[in-house]
Amino acid sequence: MLRGVESGRRVVFILFDGMKMLDVMGPAEVFAEAGLVGADYTISYVSPSGHPVMTSVGIRLPVDGTPDDVTDADMVVVSGGDVLVTHPVPEDLVAAIQKLRGRTRRLVSICTGSFALARGCRREWISRSRWSSRTTGRTSRGRSRAGW
């Protein structure tokens, strides 16, 4: 996963400014709870710059590094955020996804993270997503996968 970190299945979350906390904390909590019944997951968080990110509700989250620090992962998770629907996907996020897609067994997204995943993987992506946006009032649930 991150250089110098070796343990169990490696899950890396890509964080970015405007991301939804629920899209990261919900899945991270599931992996942590699985650890209580014997699963072995190591979770880390990266951002394109390696700097802390500001969530959609104004909470600053620290990260463990940049995509360059990830040597390999079992799963990379791209979270969603309204910013991915209302603005173009940031180029540094696209570059981070492209960098990580060759270093992971699974590349997945939560909710509107499928927009970033589509931009980062272009033709290789498979979408199974019902996305949402508060601005359009549409509801959502789902996921996208790429690199299978």
What does this structure look like?
The protein has 148 residues and is an alpha/beta fold. The chain is built from four helices and eight strands, in the order βαββββααβαββ. The strands form two sheets. The protein has a six-stranded mixed beta sheet with strand order 2-1-5-6-8-7, sandwiched between helices. Strands 3-4 form a two-stranded antiparallel sheet. The two termini are 19 Å apart.
Report the biggest beta sheet as strand number plus sense, adding barrel if it closes.
Answer: 6 strands, mixed
CATH topology category name? Rossmann fold
Supply the CATH architecture: 3-Layer(aba) Sandwich
Report mean pLDDT, rounded to a whole number.
82
- Uncertain spans: 125-148
Strand percentage lies at: 25-35%
User: Which class of secondary structure composition applies to the elements?
Assistant: alpha/beta
